Amino acid sequence: MIDNLMYKIIFPVFVFILGLPHFSKGQNTVSPYSVFGPGEIQSRGFSVNTGMGDAGIALKSGNYINNLNPASYTGMDSLRILSEFGIAGKAYSLGTSDETQNGFTGNLNHIGLGFRYTNWLAGSFGVVPFSTINYNILKKNYVQGTTSEYYSNYAGSGGISQFYFGNAVRVGKYLSLGMNMSFMFGTLMQEENVIGTSLVPTLLINRNDYLRSLYFDFGLQYSFKTDQNEFSIGLTFAPSQDLKSKHYLTVYDNSNSIIEEQESKGYYLTVPNIAGIGVAMEKPEKYKIALDYNFQDWSEVEYPTQNGDFVDLHRVALGAEFMPWKFSVMNPTYKNWTYRFGVNYTRSYLKLGGASIDKKSMTLGVGIPLPGHISNINFSLTGGWSGTKANNLVEEKFILMNVGFSLNELAFIRRKFD
After folding, report:
1. Residue 326's pLDDT is what?
2. Is 41 exposed, middle or buried (0-12, 13-18, 19+ CB in 10 A)?
3. Which H or E element spans position 15?
4. Domain map of the chain by residue range?
5. C-alpha distances in Å from residue 375, one per residue of 77, 84, 367, 410
6. Contact call for residues 106 and 402 (beta carbons, < 8 A)
7. Which range among 146-150, 205-209, 216-220, 268-272 shows the weakest confidence by mean pLDDT?
8. If you classify domain 2-239+271-410 with CATH, what class do you get?
9. Per-residue pLDDT tens digits for 294-326
10. Lowest CB count within 10 Å: 104, 111, 235, 268, which one?
11. Cβ(46)–Cβ(112) under 8 Å?
């Protein structure tokens, strides 16, 4: 029994360790808007939440981990170890009023493990993306005091990931409180290639930020039952936090010789106050409906080179999960599946040329049970668009494909001997 238990704990941890290096390389974005701030902010939800349009602040963890709210962990089965991992791929089309660029990108998306310590205490740890950077921009500049033109090509990559460790405690019958402590890590890289002219020298400028910092977020869930349904409300909050990083600037001339180096340490990156509220209604083994609102106070954030670009972020997500037929081994396979749907609207923290950079998406998902009816493979397709072609800006149309595994293993069972 002990050997079997150790295997069920060690195997997910082994997968977790193997996947950890992939997170520091960035995730699924190709947006030129990721040049701003910490990059494109990502949803931290696992595959079930993704299939519901990234909604679920008020939903408890059950046979999957809901890491949108750390207070949800108390909903996990006390006899099981839950593990989550997923991959995502994006087909995209970037368009301006003059040209279009198509492509595909993909990566490991999340890894997590969760379990109950006692009847009233539970926890989870894992790695999720916080922000991602991936852009290539050609910009026309002018020599100061003249009408002479020159061009700079900006290429960026990297992102910020979160290794989180969270715990939740049940207080009484209806209330749960939770907290995640995260270690933020990642590299934000920008390469500027100045295309020289008779007035401007050819230069290669590398700007790298190496981020290592702690981050905290908190959650609450309150639920109650009626004769047929369960209702719940969830709250999340992360206070504004300065993230510690090392900043390196290196300038090369056209012979690739270093002509300038700078190194600085400090709290260069800032994450604003982030708050969320969600409500949900659930009928066990039948359906779940969740509605979330998320607010991020970016208008109060100042970055050294981007002051004035930021506005408050607002996100609304509505998701649903349905099980139209009662599970039975005699059913056709599709009658044992879980069906999901979600819509999501985000007004991002950027306003450029008077235009808000909005993101709208719709998701269809399905959960397919593995033998035993506890573990699942979760598929989802999200179609949407963000940005605009107005004012010489860029619009992105995309289809995001997500495949996640919610694995549940019986672990904490005591044998009885006569």
Report:
1. 87
2. buried
3. helix 2-23
4. 2-239+271-410
5. 13, 10, 10, 11
6. no
7. 146-150
8. mainly beta
9. 999 998 887 765 655 788 999 999 999 999 998
10. 104
11. yes
